[in-house]
Amino acid sequence: MDAKMLKGKVAVITGASYGMGKSIAELFAEEGAAVVITARHQEKLDVVVEDICKKGGKAVGVVADVCSLEDTKRVFEIARREFGDVDILINNAGIGEQKMIDETDDDWMMYVVNTNLGGPIRYIREALKIFLPKNEGVIINISSVNGSRPFCGAAYTSTKGALNTLTKNVAMRLINTNIRCNAVAPGATVTPAHLANKAGEQPGGAEMLTYSHHFVYFPGPECDPMDQAYACLYLASKMGRHVKGQVLQVCNGAFL
User: Fold this and answer.
1) Can 230 be counted among the known catalytic residues?
2) Three-point CA angle 127, 172, 189, nearest 5°
3) pLDDT tens digit string along 19-49?
4) Strand, coil or helix: what is 59?
5) In this structure, how many other beta carbons lie within 10 angstroms of the beta carbon of residue 221?
6) What is the model's pTM?
7) Measured distance CA(237)–CA(241) in Å, rounded
8) Of the listed 18, 156, 211, 217, which one is catalytic?
9) Does the CA dihedral 100-104-108-114 come out positive or negative?
10) Using CA atoms, how far apart are residues 200 and 203, in angstroms rounded to an integer?
11) Cβ–Cβ contacts within 10 Å for residue 103, how many?
């Protein structure tokens, strides 16, 4: 008996060349899905695709920028050409930053907003062109605890709060369909972006982090990227078949 939870499904996963996106792609492939992963650098994509295929999975890497509508359309075209359909969309690509509001100029603001919010909107629009005609599909947005506890950069936290709202708005639009839209909100998760953040290497440095002690935070073991992948698997599989419009926070109890 094949107990793979995503057998026969096709998933598009943005920002999947490392970190959480990579873990989601690996887990979904292990669970039977064909995965179409995107990132801005071919070399890193190739490594992930090769690793998945070596284990018997199906994967294709597409160099694409979520800020580009043309790239977005091309990702879905390639997915359908390679695997015949798209069933799951994971909006994972994003920019982390620590710039305070008085350091946030218009160019930076628009870049972060266009990536962290504009990207998911573009991908959801394209996915719905496939999902609505067949009345089936799953959309999962990767948000952050910053969507409700805004202790990182002004633009970043604003986009994550907006992404939570977008998740609920899309779920409301689709309430009478078999298409589900939810979000996963990671807490501290050991990824290259998180380690850069702790080291003060993200745009804006570490100054914003000095204000985090004003927030209720219970330090404990940090999450692993696979913890976030498991949450996505729950929402993407039949286990989450009646879950709609929810923001599932995975933070090991650190941000209650």
Assistant:
1) no
2) 65
3) 999 999 999 999 999 999 999 999 999 999 9
4) strand
5) 10
6) 0.94
7) 7
8) 156
9) positive
10) 8
11) 17
